[in-house]
Amino acid sequence: MMKNFKNFKYMVIAPAMALLLSGCVNEDNLVQNDPNTATETSFWKTDADALAGVNAVYANLLVDGSYMRCTQILLDGPADDSRSNSPWVSMANCGRFNTSIADPAIYGWSFECYYKGIFRANQVLTHVPEIEFEDAALKDRILGQAYFLRGLYLFHAVNLFKNVPVPLTTETFQYPQKTQEEAWAQVKADFQMAADLLPVSYNGLSGLDSGQTGRATKYAAMAYLGKAHLFTRDFASARTAFESVISSGVYSLVANYRDNFTTVNENNSESLFEVQFSREAGGVNLGWGGEPSSGWGKTSARAITYAPRDFGWTDMQPTWTLFNEFQQEATVNGDVDPRLDATIIYNKPGMMLYGQEFAVKYANSPANLNDLFWRKYQNADGQFADEYDWRSGINERLLRYADVLLMYAECLNETGATTDAYQYIQQVRTRVNLPDLATVMPNMNQSQMRDQIAHERFLEFAAEGHRYDDIKRWGWFQDATKLAMLKTRDEEFNTYQPGREYYPIPQSEMDNNPTSVQNTGY
Question: Who has the most CB within 10 Å: 82, 135, 287, 516?
Fold first, then answer.
């Protein structure tokens, strides 16, 4: 399936960096630049350069440390909806709170990737204001996207690694750690600037980015601003931000829940921001770090990493807790929650995967026959035989309108409007034909509503990188009762140690930034 936004997806161009030269000869006339190679000082001249520069910030979303694979592992691994029996210890340990400082695989790659993205965004924010544009609105949009992407990369950095550097310039490569409060303040400032500069849509605009679906928009920035407020427990500010998204009337839930996790109906009415992957874009090489090039395929490795056994690596699987919780409440017709079959592949009569019947495929393997595998973000509907070509083109939906609705309901509950929260939760439930919550669980108090929202989010967003964030921001790691509950739901929590709800600061960062302090527990 061909996608929108061809110019953006096919043009992932990173502006070349000026070499940092040192030596005993200082005469300026001995320093010569290759006239055939763009440098940082020679590149930023035109609006096309500016657009290519911000495209390079987007390109960083497609690499292994980011949303090609590793960020999903860091977010899904430690949650109680996911488990890992991966033979790759670095990957399995992400879910067991046992990451080793001596081995930078996965977590260290992501840390590096986030700061590469921040550096590229800082280049745009440094140089684009100096470029003369014929179209001032295009300039604003490019700057707005740079603020948005810097905010997104920094959001991940502070959320996953706690006290982190907050670089806002390109003048040096060494920045001190900041407190979480300082880092979150910058995240919020970036998303606010993005919201002020970005359009609601790129349709109907003039300029080089006209009609390019997939770029950051005003309400994507507002929703992430709300999320940053929510994560710092500023519920009133979060409520205001989410209200602006909901009242805009731009977004709505799609009828088919599963349309959010396949190549069908990408960039749909429910999507506020998603990473654009494609089987057709770029070349055939896999993007394992380094600088993007035309030879890279712009594809995701999530599918092969999460794939059912014999169709990929099966590094991540659902928990039985998740499977069982889907069946706690029947639909109004008495059926099982349809999100179960959209989320998990399991031994059910007629269940198909990659054109084969589950029971037939695993008939001679009792362990597989009685196991659970992910369906979300898999090309499992029969159009491909397996995931071994590493070329999934399914867009990663980073932020959905369903998330906005449930986060808004949470803010209402936390600001004393528990009764008002029902209607926003029910919009998400109605899509999958669940009964009216106000009828089956009326008059909940604030504490009961908190638990209900946790349940609703658990089922709606399984394997979407939200559950670990949720239990961390809710303080469940510090709550003895909640932590004990998590251990009964997922045995991987038995190896949790205080402080390890955050990943370690990579040793390379500790070495390069001597003032850095390692996170507690490592």
Answer: 82
Cβ atoms of 426 and 433 within 8 Å: the answer is no
As a whole number of angstroms, the distance between CA 157 and CA 74 comes to 11
- The first and second tokens of residue 56, run together, are 């390079």
Question: Within 10 Å of residue 226's Cβ, how many Cβ atoms?
Answer: 26
Q: Return the structure tokens found at 325.
A: 């919780």
Give me the DSSP letters along 242-295: HHHHHHH------S-GGGGSSSTT-S-TTEEEEE---SSSB-SB---SS---TT
The beta strand positions in 358-517, using DSSP E, are 373-374, 396-400
Task: Assign 14 a pLDDT band (cuts: 50, 70, 90).
Answer: very low
CATH of the domain at 123: 1.25.40.390
What average pLDDT does this structure show over 157-178? 94
**In a 10 Å sphere around its CB, with 0-12 CB exposed, 13-18 middle and 19+ buried, how is residue 88 labelled?**
middle
Q: Is the pLDDT of residue 137 over 90?
A: yes
Instruction: Determine the Cα–Cα distance for residues 465 and 286; give it in Å rounded to an integer.
Output: 23
Rg (CA), the chain: 23
pLDDT of residue 398: 98
* Position 493 in a domain: yes
* Tokens describing residue 503: 């990943």
Has residue 447 been placed in a domain?
yes
Query: How many CB atoms are located within 10 Å of the residue 228 CB?
Result: 27
DSSP string, 124-159: HHHHGGGS--S-HHHHHHHHHHHHHHHHHHHHHHHH
Q: Is residue 351 part of a domain?
A: no
Angle, CA of 55, 56 and 60, to the nearest 5°: 115
Around Cβ 205, how many Cβ atoms within 10 Å? 16
Percentage helix, strand, coil for the chain under 3-state DSSP, each rounded to 5: 45, 5, 45
Buried b (16+ CB within 10 A) or exposed e, 308-336: beebbbbbbbbbebbbebbeebeeeeeee
Query: pTM for this structure?
Result: 0.92
Q: What is the C-alpha separation between 211 and 144, in angstroms, rounded?
A: 17
Buried (b) or exposed (e) across 375-391, using 16+ Cβ within 10 A? Answer: bbbbbbeeebebbeebb
Minimal CA–CA distance to 450: which of 476, 426, 414? 414
> How many domains does one find in the chain?
1
Per-residue pLDDT band at 282 (split at 50, 70, 90): confident
> Scanning the structure block, which residue is given the tokens 């930023």?
44
- Residue 177 structural domain: 43-280+289-300+398-508
Q: How far apart are CA 219 and CA 198, in angstroms?
A: 9
pLDDT of residue 289: 67
**Number of neighbouring beta carbons within 10 Å of residue 28:** 5
pLDDT exceeds cutoff 50 at 21: no
Q: Would you call 309 helix, strand, or coil by DSSP?
A: strand
Q: At 111, list the tokens.
A: 């840390």
